[in-house]
Amino acid sequence: MSEAPESPKPGSPTGGATADASYTERLVTLEQSGIKRLLPTQAPYRWNLKRLQLGRVLDVGCGVGRNLQNCDPGSVGVDHNETSVATARARGLIAYTADEFEADPELSRPGAFDSLLVAHVLEHLDLETCEQLLKSYLPSIRSGGKVVLITPQAAGYKSDPTHVRFVDFEGLRDYAERAGLRVDRSYSFPLPEAAGKVFKYNEYILVGIVP
């Protein structure tokens, strides 16, 4: 595993630092900051999601819906931040808090979704919480469905004070194997891994298959 870059002032290892309204405000502000106002900077990431052919997605840790809005119709987002869920809904997306999701038997029934997306979530959580998160939501994914795990590389990890664990290819593979997934592939996106030392939007991506 690569040496973890230093992260400034980590937040709660159980994700508490991402649960309040100020974190939602930060996400919305980042969407509209700098060059993002002028150029379609999300286009490569939208393309990447589309080419994975994920079908109906359960997006856990959906935030304000940045990825969810690029998923197939009928896809559902879940987040522990009520303000983020409300923001995603205001954008016309289907999103629920974890409690709401669990209370709805149709949403939480086994095999209800084709794929599970966990993007930029694992780096906010301690090891035990990450394992519990995957264990909780995997039953909702059909046999043969996909699980996509995405984490930031070095520069991205250092850019957010709520990050608590650096999760690289080795870490993603470990999570996938602990969850009983078959690892299909892993890759650096949109640039080779070396670029992740300076380009904060470079990502580690692992695609696993549900038995």
UniProtKB/TrEMBL annotation:
Pfam family, one: Methyltransf_23
InterPro entries: SAM-dependent_MTases_sf
Keywords, alphabetical: Methyltransferase, S-adenosyl-L-methionine, Transferase
Positions of region (Disordered): 1-21
Gene3D superfamilies referenced in this protein's UniProt entry, alphabetically: Vaccinia Virus protein VP39
Protein name: Methyltransferase family protein
Organism: Kitasatospora kazusensis
